[in-house]
Design brief:
- The complex is a heterodimer of chains A (475) and B (102).
- Chain A has 17 helices and 17 strands.
- In chain A, helix 3 runs antiparallel to helix 6, helix 5 packs parallel to helix 6 and helix 9 crosses helix 10.
- Chain A has a seven-stranded parallel β-sheet, with helices on both faces.
- Chain A starts with 6 loop residues before the first helix and ends with a helix.
- Chain A folds into two domains: 210 residues, 3-Layer(aba) Sandwich (Aldehyde Dehydrogenase, Chain A, domain 1), CATH 3.40.605; 195 residues, Aldehyde Dehydrogenase, Chain A, domain 2 (3-Layer(aba) Sandwich).
- In chain B, helix 1 packs parallel to helix 2.
- Chain B is globular, with a radius of gyration of 13 Å.
- The chains are: A alpha/beta (475), B alpha/beta (102).
- Chains A and B meet through helix 1 of A and helix 2 and helix 3 of B.
Chain lengths: 475, 102
């Protein structure tokens, strides 16, 4: 089978684009970014519908909101950022920072947020004068490439470098690997599953990846149960749970658990019986791959219930799964990108936090954790033991983690998960992560070193404390 | 917009020297491309692009360089008097392997 993808040719074009890009001024760059943001924003509904029709996942209305976040909120976040030339000067330290582009970027796009991730990645790449090649998910090629096309044609109208945005119109694993290992590629933005991220990090090219999540939502006893449940539902039903930062389980402290259960029921969520949990496991989990089943990803709760042969009211928003434990024997205690939520009722604060640690370490280290509480000390205690790049307080974690709406985190569709998620950073990835920062270091001699008798370093009888004392002496 | 001079060097070999006088952005490149290329074809001589005073080149200029380089054959297109900004562009694009840039 011949592939129509000519990796070398596309990389050559990207390299030439990078060369031309290097000359652009901040003003010109910002003009391109503004125009592309507007064009993508203006197509938000059309592209959301296209994504929904093509992937069959999520809700088109929520995909519109994702497109809005990826354009309006991302633009707000990056528009005033200096990304060209001198970006900071400090007379005292003598350090001047200069922003330089990195070079061609290969961007992988997930099936769950295709159009929004394309918009987001193109905007941050253009803002930093980096050419970008979009690698769509095989189930979201049309909507991803259409988004890229709209952005590119708009950029060209503002005299952006030719080929500053390119896209693959077919997907092949071989070509993806060839791109990732290409000698002229500068960076991989790998938003996708673990195997893809691992391949990116193994390619020899610098990579910014993401990790899988398994977000616990802890409802501490001082929380407002009604509000907490409302926030969790808002989050977990958003695009039918496709956001990797969405809550995967609720851990309710015993003192508030009954109120929480009552609230979930009041707000049209359905608690499964033991038999129903078994039936749901059958359809929601693929034991061969030890992963959630793709068939239920982004599907509404009622549809999933039907697939599992469970009778639920028509207006059911979430399927709540009471579980006794965590791990392989409890398949629904891991990441499931659908309106399914594990539920744990746990003794006191310490027990509840321990339960959250277990959930966090069951496939979600480095990603996100959520707490609903009005006790500042408990919030800090919880946060310090979570291995999570983001700890979100009293807010929906799907919308919270991407930043910009419920907090002031950088708005992003690529959430760094630190070393816990085998990533290089816990940042919400944005334009500032796509720059090479050069530092001009002016001569600012260390006076203490200048006045210090350096012969003393050769006197082995002097230990660190003795040297430090003499080094810091005012004489 | 472009001055064309057919001049001889010390070895008496003729060179077509093209001196660019305006910013080489997309619009200007479009205007000069056809004429420049027909001059190159006509002269059949090695080509020199004199870049004095030029500190910006668009994608289309780079494309033009490749087209001319292909036409005149290896080693027969030189780009001279390049501004450091433009030198960097050729370097990043990897064109310094195909053209002589000074």
């Amino acid at each position: 089978m011949g592939s129509a993808i000519n990796v070398d040719q596309m990389m050559e074009k990207a390299t030439t684009a990078a060369a031309v890009f290097s000359q652009l001024t901040q003003e010109h760059t910002d003009r391109i970014v503004r125009a592309v943001y507007e064009a993508a924003f203006d197509n938000r509904v059309k592209l959301a519908k296209l994504a929904y029709d093509e992937t069959g996942k999520g809700k088109w209305e929520d995909k519109v909101i994702k497109n809005v976040v990826a354009t309006q909120f991302v633009y707000e976040d990056i528009k005033d950022l200096k990304t060209v030339g001198i970006i900071s000067e400090n007379e005292e330290t003598g350090i001047v920072e200069i922003a330089q582009p990195m070079g061609p970027i290969f961007a992988m796009i997930p099936v769950t947020n295709p159009t929004s991730t394309v918009m987001f990645k193109i905007l941050i790449a253009l803002k930093t004068r980096n050419p970008i090649i979009i690698g769509p998910h095989p189930s979201a090629i049309n909507c991803s490439t259409e988004t890229a096309r709209i952005c590119y044609e708009t950029a060209l109208k503002e005299d952006a470098p030719e080929d500053c945005v390119q896209w693959l119109t077919e997907v092949s694993q071989d070509a993806t690997h060839e791109f990732m290992a290409h000698k002229d590629l500068s960076l991989i933005l790998a938003t996708g599953g673990s195997s893809l991220v691992h391949a990116a990090y193994s390619s020899g090219t610098p990579a910014i990846g993401v990790g899988p999540g398994n977000v616990p939502a802890f409802i501490e006893k001082t929380a407002d149960a009604h509000f907490a449940v409302e926030q969790i539902i808002l989050s977990k039903t958003f695009d039918n749970g496709t956001v990797c930062a969405s809550e995967q389980s609720v851990v309710a402290e015993r003192a508030i658990a009954d109120k929480v259960i009552e609230e979930f029921k009041k707000q049209n969520c359905y608690f499964l019986s033991r038999q129903e949990v078994k039936a749901l496991e059958e359809v929601a989990y693929d034991p061969k791959r030890s992963l959630m089943s793709p068939a239920i990803v982004g599907k509404p709760a009622t549809e999933i219930a039907k697939m599992a042969g469970i009778d639920v009211p028509e207006d059911t928003q979430l399927l709540l799964v009471p579980l006794e434990g965590i791990g392989k024997e409890y398949p629904l205690s891991g990441e499931i990108l659908a309106p399914i939520l594990a539920f744990y009722k746990v003794g006191g604060f310490a027990d509840a936090v321990n339960q959250c640690i277990d959930l966090n370490f069951y496939g979600g280290t480095g990603h996100t954790a959520s707490i609903h509480s009005n006790d500042e000390e408990k919030i800090r205690e919880f946060s310090s033991v979570m291995n999570a790049g983001r700890i979100l307080v009293n807010q929906p974690s799907s919308q919270g983690a991407v930043g910009g709406i419920f907090n002031t985190l950088d708005t992003s569709f690529t959430l760094g998960c630190g070393s816990g998620g085998k990533n290089i950073t816990t940042d919400n990835i944005t334009a500032k992560n796509l720059l090479n920062i050069q530092r001009i270091a002016r001569r600012r001699i260390n006076r203490r070193f200048e006045h210090f008798d350096q012969k003393l370093y050769f006197d082995e009888s002097l230990d660190a404390n003795a040297i430090e004392k003499k080094f810091n002496m005012n004489d | 917009m472009v001055k064309y001079i057919l001049e001889s060097d010390i070895t008496d070999e003729s060179n077509l020297v093209c001196t660019f006088e305006e910013r080489l952005d997309t619009a200007n490149c479009q205007k000069i491309e056809d004429e420049l290329f027909s001059k190159v074809e006509e002269s059949k001589a090695p080509v020199v692009f004199n870049m004095r005073g030029i500190d910006y080149v668009a994608s289309s200029f780079l494309r033009m360089c490749l087209r001319v380089a292909k036409e005149v054959g290896p080693g027969n297109l030189s780009v001279i008097n390049v501004h450091p900004n433009v030198k960097k562009v050729f370097k990043i694009a990897g064109f310094d392997k195909q053209l002589s840039i000074t």
